[in-house]
Known about the structure:
Elements: H1 20-30, H2 34-85, E1 92-99, H3 110-122, E2 126-135, H4 140-156, E3 161-171, H5 173-178, E4 183-186, E5 191-193, H6 205-211, H7 235-260, E6 275-277, H8 278-284, E7 289-290, H9 293-301, E8 306-308, H10 315-335
Parallel strand pairs: 1-2, 1-8, 2-3, 3-4, 3-5, 4-7
Antiparallel strand pairs: 5-6
Amino acid sequence: MAENHWNEPETSSSEKPANKVEAAVLAAKSGSESGKEWKLLEKLLSGLYTEQRRSRRWGIFFKALTFVYLFALLGLFWSSSELTTDAKPEAHVAVVEIRGAIADNQDANADTIIWALRDAFEADSSKAVLLRINSPGGSPVQSGYVFDEVKRLRALYPDKKVYAVITDIGASGAYYIAASADEIYADKASLVGSIGVVAGGFGYVDLMNKLGVERRLYTAGEHKAFLDPFSPPNKDESVLWQQVLNTTHQQFIEQVKIGRGDRLKDDPKLFSGLVWTGEQAVELGLIDGLGSSSYVARELVGVDELVSYMPSPSPWEQIADELGVSFARTISTQLGLGSTPQLR
C-alpha cells in the first residue's frame, strides 16, 4: 500500500525571507513552532511601532522648537525696533554712527550718514549731535561729502553743537569727518590721525616673464593703460599719479586745518600719515580731550539720553543677519578659528 506523507510546504528561491519579520511570517504560515514564531513576530512589530512613535515625537518636538525660536526672534527684533525708532525722549543727544570702512558700497557711506545727520539736526528734542566714530577711514570723496554737510548743517543750526567721539580708531577719512565737529573726544588708547593718502597695487611683469606669458593690450589713448599691473611702470605716469596723491593729501590737510584751527600744534609729523594714541592726540591738538559718548552727553551737553538716528534694518534682515552671525560664530568656535586680538 502506498504510504501517505504530510509534505512540508516548499519555499522557492524567489520567496526567501528578506528580513526577520518576513521570516517570522513564513514560519507562522508553515505551522512549525507557531507559538514561538508568533511571539517573535509580535515582538518585532511592537518594536517597530514603538520606534516609529518615538521618531515622530522627536520630529514634532524639534519642529515646534524651531518655530518657537523664530517667533521669539521676531518678537525681540520688533520690540527693539519700536524702542529705537519711536521712544525718543524730550531731551537727548542724537547719535550718528560712522563704523567700518567709509565707502559707497559699505554701511558707512555718505548718503546714509548725511540723511541721519539731517534728521538729527532737525529734531527739536535733540540738544546736540554726536558723531560716534570707529573706522580706519576709506574714500576721500565720501568723507568729503560728510565733512561738507556737517559744516553746512552747523551753519543752519548754530545753537546745536556737534561732538565727535572716537572709540577704537578714527583714522584717515574717519578723522577727516571728525575734524568737522566742534569738539573731538577719544579714549586714551584710541588710535587717532593718519592724515595722509595711500594708493597701492602689484606688478606682475617679472613673474610673467619667468612664466613665459606675453601681455597683449590694445589701447586708444597714450595713457589709457595707466596703472595696469601687467605692464611695466611708466615714469611719466608715476609722476602724474604722485601729483594726484599729493593734491588729495593737501585737500585733506586744508580741511583738517579748517576744522581744528589754532588747536593744532606746529609739528612736522602731524600730516605725515602717522597715528597716535588718544593721550598723544590731545597734546598735538588733534582732539580736545578724553571721554566717551556718555561722558560727552552727561558732562558737556547736560543730558543722559543717547538716541541713534541711523536707519534700522527690517526685522527680516535682522533675523537673517543674526542667524548668519550665530552660525558663523558657532563654526568658528568649534574649529578654533577665533583670532580677535585681546589684552591679557
